[in-house]
Design brief:
about 425 residues; alpha+beta; Cytochrome Bc1 Complex, Chain A, domain 1; 2 domains; six-stranded mixed beta sheet
């Protein structure tokens, strides 16, 4: 488990000292609330990656990484529930393997430099970097529609969570990005770095006391602590939204979204994961067997639990002509699970699959950090053995209980423009299911 120490107001250092890896992996998360500044927040990491005060060009950054035996640096933004987090990544060899005891210290100092000491020109970020990265970000936003599964997922979010921050795309909109100036971007960056929660994670053969001193000294001045909105409570849907839209594609993309009060911090979280696994998490799962194998209606079908917002989605790739058949079979399999029609082999195979994935995660420092961040957001800690025990204790009765908590909210279908079913709905039409 991570050892956590507070190094400033709302700044936490999480260290997992271990000699099992030949590298030291670090991530820094800067939390913000999804909202009006989404585009600003998304642009910040892209500009920071172009250069810092000490390493003012991409060539200088690359040279610094090469000097640290091919260290790797990257950044992005991620959504954790209704929080938009800047995510910075750094990996370098453990010093013991290259006979350089101070390598980690050098690497972490350089990492902090790239995040907290940006290149500034007059009263803003470098205008050239800002203009170029605005173009790159707008191309990224514009290119979403070229990846039809990602586009369909975003449209599903916008439909199911209309009016809620979670509906926002993590990169913002072209209109937001267009109006950003170098001065405005620097002001936003400084406000966020001075007040918002920051979590620093380090996994590898390191000394936690030295790291605490190093990161404490490299932080920008903190000007208090900005409290982010609490994680939202469960909203039970009043009716089911059914929406079909058309795009230029051959294969239809189907999503069903279920709201649930169960999130990562809930005692029942792993019961919900087992429920999802039995339904659609594995090749032995009900949806895979009945929708894909027996009925031959889906190219793929799977389920996913969003641990922070509190929902489960079902995703399937189907021919548009098979829409109603596929929906009916999916709903039928959900109902069968809710009634407890689960074999011992289905339950045990799901538990084995989940436990194996949890234990495998322990061999992946990036996955370990991602789980640690989820724990930090939710304020819970669970050891791998505790997780295994929770999964093993799940019963069929527990699955029935989870089924009662899941409430169908949205059925979203993205279909090809030329494909029309005889009784299907026109694009964008909503049908209230009783």
């Amino acid at each position: 488990m991570f050892r956590t120490v507070r190094i400033a107001d709302e700044v936490r250092l999480h260290v997992l000292p271990t000699s099992k890896f030949k590298t030291v992996t670090s991530k820094v998360y800067v939390q913000t609330a999804l909202g009006a500044a989404t585009g600003l927040t998304a642009l910040v990491p892209m500009v920071l990656a172009r250069g810092s005060e000490r390493y003012p060009t991409m060539q200088a950054v690359a040279a610094q990484l090469a000097d640290l035996y091919g260290a790797r640096f990257g950044c992005d933004v991620v959504k954790i529930g209704e929080r938009q987090c800047m995510e910075f990544y750094y990996e370098l060899p453990a010093g013991v393997y290259v006979n350089e005891p101070d390598l980690v210290s050098r690497g972490m100092t350089a990492f902090a430099e790239l995040i907290f000491h940006p290149k500034v020109v007059d009263t803003g970020f470098d205008p050239l970097y800002v203009d170029q990265e605005k173009t790159n970000l707008k191309n990224l936003i514009r290119g979403l529609i070229d990846n039809k599964r990602s586009y369909a997922l975003q449209r599903f979010y916008e439909t199911m969570f209309a009016g809620e921050p979670f509906a926002l795309y993590k990169y913002g909109t072209e209109e937001e990005v267009d109006s950003i100036t170098p001065k405005e971007l620097l002001q936003h960056y400084r406000q966020v770095m001075a007040k918002n929660p920051i979590d620093v994670f380090v996994v590898g053969d390191v000394d936690e006391n030295s790291l605490a001193d190093l990161w404490s000294q490299t932080l920008p001045e903190r000007l208090g602590a900005r409290q982010l909105p609490e994680l939202e409570e469960f909203k039970e849907p009043k009716e089911v939204k059914e929406v079909q839209e058309e795009e230029d594609l051959q294969q239809g993309i189907l999503f069903l979204g279920y709201r649930t009060p169960v999130t990562y911090s809930s005692p029942d979280y792993y019961k919900l994961l087992v429920y999802s696994g039995v339904l659609g998490g594995f090749p032995h799962s009900k949806l895979f067997i009945n929708v894909r194998e027996k009925a031959s209606l889906a190219y793929y079908v799977w389920t996913h639990v969003e641990a922070t917002k509190g929902f489960m989605l079902i995703n399937a790739g189907i021919h548009p002509d098979n829409y109603q058949k596929a929906v009916n079979i999916i709903l039928g399999q959900v109902e069968a699970l809710n009634q407890g029609r689960v074999t011992e082999e289905e339950l045990e195979a799901t538990k084995r699959g989940l436990i194996n994935s949890f234990l495998t995660m322990e061999d992946n420092p990036t996955a370990t950090i991602d789980r640690g961040m989820l724990e930090a957001v939710h304020g819970v800690r669970r050891t791998p053995q505790e997780v295994v025990d929770l999964v093993r204790r799940v019963t069929v009765e527990d699955l029935v209980e989870q089924g009662r908590k899941l409430k169908l909210d949205t059925i979203y279908f993205l279909r090809g423009e030329m494909e029309k079913s005889a009784s299907g709905n026109r694009a964008g039409q909503e049908v209230q299911l009783r």
